[in-house]
Design goal:
Length: 243
């Protein structure tokens, strides 16, 4: 199993607080059946200054520790990038990166709205041969009220990623119900943990997959797993049909 969204790197953001917590998270990931995980610390200027080179360096350090402890987990570099109208320039300045250096770039919207420049930004990123993945749209209040906003982004070439905890009900019944709708409508292409720790923001990927298999069948779980692998290796993502 491959997890494309996690906050496993220590002392980078609101995820793992130190290397010991990173190690505990790595062990929990292995227990879940995860063999590869993309570290996606927040990139949000003025709050989390986790530029590309810093993420690459810290990922390498964590992999050395995991190898020494013989924990069978490989960590790859990435970022969860807060959307801004300067984002295109940040890419040109080599401050941000795709997931594992691929063309897939993980974008985080504000929790309560979709900025008006989002459509233009998606277009600008595509001109740079980047493919946006919208992180946890099921937790965005404006998208919950108007799912057509997400559908328009997908029509224009973006993908979306649901948090495993949203599927299991970690974020409440409304988010769980909306997540189910997004899967059923083909408006989600990935399930990822967005794990921050081993407590209240753990992985829950296995549990989410079981619920998806129960509600939609094993072929949908296989498609999500295939898409995660395709992102890791920079290959084409499987597109879902939706109403």
């Amino acid at each position: 199993m491959i997890d494309i969204h996690s906050h496993i790197l220590p002392k980078m953001d609101d995820g793992a607080g130190d290397i010991q917590e990173s190690i505990e998270m790595a062990r929990k990931a292995v227990d879940q059946g995860i063999s590869n995980i993309i570290a996606t610390p927040h990139y949000n200027k003025g709050i989390y200054e986790n530029d590309k080179q810093k993420v690459v360096n810290e990922t390498a350090k964590l992999n050395l520790v995991l190898d020494e402890l013989e924990i069978p987990l490989k960590v790859w570099p990435g970022q969860e990038i807060r959307i801004s109208d300067e984002l295109s320039d940040d890419y040109d300045n080599n401050e941000i990166m795709g997931l594992n250096g691929s063309q897939y770039i993980l974008l985080e919207l504000p929790s309560n709205h979709v900025p008006r420049y989002t459509e233009r930004l998606i277009y600008d990123l595509q001109l740079k041969r980047l493919t946006p993945i919208i992180a946890h749209p099921e937790r965005n209040l404006e998208i919950m009220k108007n799912p057509h906003l997400l559908k328009e982004m997908i029509w224009k070439g973006a993908y979306s990623q649901i948090t495993a905890g949203s599927i299991t009900g970690k974020f409440g019944w409304r988010t769980k119900r909306f997540s189910k709708y997004l899967v059923q409508s083909g408006l989600s292409h990935f399930i990822a943990s967005d794990a921050h720790n081993v407590g209240n923001r753990g992985f829950q990927l296995r549990e989410a997959h079981k619920l998806i298999e129960k509600n939609f069948g094993p072929e949908i779980v296989d498609a999500f797993n295939e898409n995660a692998e395709n992102v890791l290796y920079g290959m084409k993502v499987k597109e879902f049909l939706f109403d």
